[in-house]
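Comment thread on ticket #2218

A.B. wrote:
> Attaching the input chain for the structure job we discussed in standup.
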Amino acid sequence: MPPADGQGPIFLNATDYELPATLPLGLRKYSNFHDMNSGATAVLRSCFDQITGRTVVVKSLRSEFRDDLKENRRLLREARVTAQLQHPNTVPVYEIGRDEVEGLYFTMKRVSGENLFETLKRIARGDPKTTAAFPLRQRVDVVEGAAQALMYAHARGVIHRDVKPENIWVGNFGEVILLDWGVAKVWGQPDDEPQRRGVSLGQRESGQRESLQSLTMAGERPGTPLYMSPEQVNVNRAVIDERSDIFSMGVVLYEIAALREPFRGRVIQETFENIIHDNPPPPSRASPGRGIPKRLDEIVMQAIAKSPADRFQTMRQMLEEIRQVEFGD
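C.D. wrote:
> Ran it. Output below, let me know if you need it in another format.
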């Protein structure tokens, strides 16, 4: 029999039990489900695969969206994009299926660790263990890993469009994984909606103004707006290309260096105005005394230039510059 608990180390005790006489279909092949995270439309759970003998992560739609054709299309697109981006800094997809009860789902590799934002929070609070484990050089290495995933995706015509520390997973064994390709743009494929403008800009649907709450309210972090490029915010700009991801990665690089976001406003709309109009100080001036190299300042400021033409034109260019940065002891 497989181990009773799908969580924690399995070692080799899940290799020798017999396969079921009749192989189960859909999610019935999995057991020991544990909730991990719940989003607006989908849920993540860890579970034990009784066929392969490994713990995996399953993503499926919340019950109220299981019959929603648009959300099913989005989830299937995310699953297929993630499955086709086979790179060390992306998560492997094991299966895409449809369960007779829970509907569409896909399973992925389970990577133990946490997202980069959780690490940054502890560093900002002065946690000595995390600060020692993740000096600036190490944090930049994490960003490099995520940038390599983007470089690979861009070469295959995929724009992530939601790069932020919460979507950069840092594994317990040094893995860096760029997650959540749910709103990715695939060249040659139609979008479900124009870059989430109805939600992100908060101006298209009735009641959206009332949803523009303070960015500093306890327990809330509307992370996506903080990392949007000007062309994502500006409804009059039609083209979103890889330089939009470069802008978002520049914001992430600014945050891991200065331990603050460059465009945060009191409310979401102010944040959007800052993204379009504000020119923040370089990270070393925003957070003096942190030993931020001048060259890193220059890379960040070029990446977050308002005009796409003034940024790095490819993620490869940005990566090559990051790799040349010299850090002090």
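A.B. wrote:
> Thanks. Noting for the ticket: Residues 158 and 186 are 5 Å apart (CA to CA).
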